[in-house]
Design goal:
294 residues; alpha/beta; Rossmann fold; 4-stranded parallel β-sheet; 10 helices; 13% strand; globular
């Protein structure tokens, strides 16, 4: 297990407090930190699972959460760009500012798909660095867990051996879970699907689904009646088997499109905690895949 092996290089001796105070921007990140950190970490999450991750209300209470943090872990890929910078400044916590040892951008640990460095406003609400929903490709998770373990080791050297052990356990469980998820998804491989937003691109690539269209004409722009009419033709031509979207989005367009062609319309949890079943990373993916294949 390569990530656990590399983490061992950082597990040198030193003194540190027994606990590390960590703030995560989203629920899935908070759970990842708990999976690796165990009882040595205290984790707070900024965004509620019901929120659109692009648009989290930047309340002063969030800056208070950041004020005493030792580590801030973010999704990155500019997903938090619209709400995190002002509360990070208001926190007045030098330990967790960008480029400090207490700041971890998980997107820096993976290669983002579909970068658009020359995008303009005409292209909609796009992310020039690439698709920020990389976590939905579960193959990225061991790299992300390694990054968390690495950061915790630097901040809590006395706990590094425990972080290494928990990382090994997590990676072993995750690889087993991925194999089971692939098996469950086999009936859907090669099937055509329409999504609302570009959220499931990375998941579809991993799962073997064919994403043939987005309900949004461009990211962040609601569909017009004419756009929906054109999608109806694609649904027939591409033999689309379902329409999918995240739980926090308006459902009218997705439901209408699915009903017009009598195909399933499925709402998927977009974060840990978004449903009663998705209370950790493993159950989150279990829930998503269960909804898809049911």
């Amino acid at each position: 297990m390569i990530w656990a092996t590399v983490v061992a290089l950082f597990c040198y001796q030193g003194s540190a407090g027994a606990n590390v105070s960590v703030v995560a921007t989203y629920g899935w990140i908070g759970d990842l930190v708990k999976q690796v950190g165990g009882d040595r970490v205290q984790v707070s999450v900024l965004a509620q699972p019901s929120f659109d991750p692009h648009f989290v209300p930047p309340k002063p209470s969030l800056a208070v959460k950041l004020r005493n943090a030792d580590l801030l872990v973010i999704n990155g890929g500019q997903l938090e760009m619209g709400w995190l910078p002002p509360i990070l400044r208001q926190s007045a916590n030098a330990r967790i500012q960008s480029n400090s040892e207490g700041f971890l951008d998980l997107s820096s640990l993976v290669t983002l798909s579909n970068p658009r460095p020359h995008a303009t406003r005409a292209d909609g609400d796009v992310h020039p660095e690439g698709n920020p929903h990389y976590v939905l490709n579960p193959e990225h998770m061991p790299k992300l867990a390694f990054g968390v373990a690495h950061a915790l080791c630097h901040l809590d050297k006395a706990g590094c051996s425990e972080y290494e052990h928990r990382l090994q356990q997590f990676e072993s469980r995750w690889l087993q879970a991925m194999a089971a998820w692939r098996q469950r998804l086999k009936p859907l491989q090669g099937k055509a699907v329409v999504q609302y937003h570009e959220s499931f691109d990375d998941f579809a690539q991993w799962a073997g689904l064919r994403l043939v269209a987005n309900i949004e004409p461009v990211p962040g722009v609601p569909p017009s009646a004419s756009h929906l009419e054109s999608l109806l033709q694609q649904v027939n031509q591409q033999q689309v088997i379902m329409v999918i979207q995240e739980h926090f989005r308006d459902r009218e367009a997705s439901e209408w499109l699915a009903r017009q062609r009598n195909i399933p319309w499925k709402v998927l949890p977009a974060d840990v905690g978004a449903t009663a079943k998705s209370d950790d990373l493993f159950h989150w993916f279990d829930d998503m895949i269960g909804i898809l294949v049911e």
